[in-house]
Here is the input.
Amino acid sequence: MLQSRVLFRPVDYPASVAFYRDVLGLHIFREWATGTVFFLGGGLLELSRSAGPVTEDKISLWLQVRDVDAEFARLEAAGVTVAEAPVDEPWGLREARVRDPDGLMLVLVEIPPDHPMRRGRD
Here is the structure.
């Protein structure tokens, strides 16, 4: 794994951002129209804005890997429950989704070399 973060889809996004930023005092790593990522000690916490009510997968683990297709194939061969095969997402990342033994969603993410997350904050 290259990087990881806890991905949380809160019911009230603005209230959650205010809580983590103003009450807990977490510093912002990155933000955009649909999400805010906070430094969380040795990791990151991402709050992601949802289009509607969130009833499932409010919390998932975001795991950056070098090659999402290879990692997905390895996990599938190991019998891991597949939620979604690798796909190029509209936001420019290649992602796949699997579940751990308790059903927690694990989002495997490959960041292409030309993606803004590789170049900095532009």
User: Anything to note?
Assistant: The chain is about 20% helix and 40% strand.
